[in-house]
Structure formats: C-alpha cells, structure tokens
Amino acid sequence: MRSSRSRNSAAITAILTIFIAASGSSAQLVQDSVPDLQRIDVIEHLGQTIPLDLEFLNSHGESVHLRDYFGRGKPVILSLHYTNCPMLCSLVLNGLSKTVNELAYTPGEEFQMLSVSFDPRETPQLAAAIKERYQGTLKVGAPADAWEFLVGPESHSKALAEALGFKYYYIEKTGEFAHPAVIFVLTQDGRISRYIYGINFKERDLRLALLEASEGKIGNTVDRLILYCFHYDPDAKGYVVLAGNVMKLGGAASLILLGLFLGFLWGKERLRKKSA
What we know:
- The chain has a domain at 41-221: Glutaredoxin (3-Layer(aba) Sandwich).
- It is α+β, with helices and mostly antiparallel strands.
- Strands 6-5-4-10-11 form a 5-stranded mixed beta sheet, sandwiched between helices.
- The chain contains 8 helices and 13 strands.
- Residues 1-7, 9-33 and 243-253 have low confidence and may be disordered.
- It is elongated and about 95 Å long.
- The protein has helices at 5-21, 27-33, 88-102, 124-135, 154-164, 203-213, 221-229, 243-275, and strands at residues 41-42, 55-57, 63-65, 76-81, 112-117, 147-150, 166-167, 169-171, 176-178, 182-186, 192-197, 230-233, 238-241.
C-alpha cells in the first residue's frame, strides 16, 4: 500500500537504471535524469473502480470500451505497456504469459486478459502484431479473445493509468517511456483487487489473486481452502501463510477426525453388544 511506496520506487528505479544504462548511448541520460526517475511510482488504489467508459481501438481497428471486457462474471488481468518498449514491457508480458500457462485455469474462460498501450503513437496494426505474438504463447484451448490488446488517445490511456495509480513519463531524448513493472488483477465489475509487481510472477500469487478477485467463483474447494490459509502481505509483495487461519483449519480438521474416530468406536461397541 502507500507505506510501501518508497520501496516500490527504489526497486523500480534500480531496474530502470540497469535497463537504460544497458543501451550504452543512454548511460549519460541516466546520470543526468536520476531525479526524474522519482516520477515513476505505483500508488495503490485497492477497491476503487477504473473508468469503464474509456474508449480504445482493438487489434481490428474497432472502437471498444473497457466495459466490453468486464461484467462477464470473471476477473480480469490488466497490464499497461507500449509495443516499442526496448525491454521492460516485453519482460513483463513474457513473465505474465509464462505464469498464466502454469495455472490450472484457462485464460478466456475462467479469467480475461487485457493489455492497454499508453503510447498514443501506436496503431491497431501494432496491437494486432503483439496480440498474435502473445495469443500464440497461451495454452491450447484458450479462445482467440483470451488476451486482447488495445491502443488509444493519450487522454484515455492516461486516465486509466491514473485510476490504477500507475506513474510513468515520456523521455524526449530517446522517444521512450519510463514506467514501473506491475500487473493488475481486477474484479468482474472493474474494481482493483490486487497489484502484482515485477517481471516474474509466482503461480501461487496469481492464482490466489484471481481466486480472490472472483470471490471464490473460480477454482475448486482446495483452492478456496488455500486462499483461507494465505493473505496478501504488501511488504512481502505476495501471499504469505496466515498462521491463525491455519490453526483454525487444523483445529476443525482435528475435531472432525476425532468425531469420526469416536463414531467408529461407538459403532464397533454396538456391534459387539449385538453379537453378545
């Protein structure tokens, strides 16, 4: 949450410093503009609803609204990117694709995936190219609209980024954007349920975030029991064991086993008396 904001900024700054420095010709730019990197941040707006009336273009050049991807009774994994990003966006999308394929859930069925470009220069043709690339990485059985890519005017992408608390800025000298590495899990009605940071995502974290956002409507009984035993720790940036709930669950299980054992003994004693 807000208490972890400075830690987020430090981690993001370190990633971006390495990334930009690796480009060689941009090394001096990093030295000259380190204070500007403080403008990169994520301010969590958990529980708030994103503006679903924002209009974009899909990979077919058709006008769509964000609400077209919500209200289907399933959570949404949302990411912000730009196609011509030299490194970080690809790392985030690659990491997301890898982890999604590790899930027992199928994208497009149990949950929707949506990526929105914040570069107003990008076209539906670019969206189509990146959609083809990443749709092809999804597991067999994922429908064609499982992962949608949108482009649109700066005012709309910026409004979405502000609603999510995603702070980025444009670097005039390079024509690139500086931005954090994060994905968002939202409920089916557009409420922000969870932020997941980095470029490599744990399968457990994404699975529990989706289960949490769906309010238990996806997943099986075992998944719901696991969610009961874990809670999201903003400092750890992931789900950790909630000892109290584990003890409660263990106590309940012990009582059930004790009841079954006593029932077995009682039944055995009744049979013995009847035999006698």
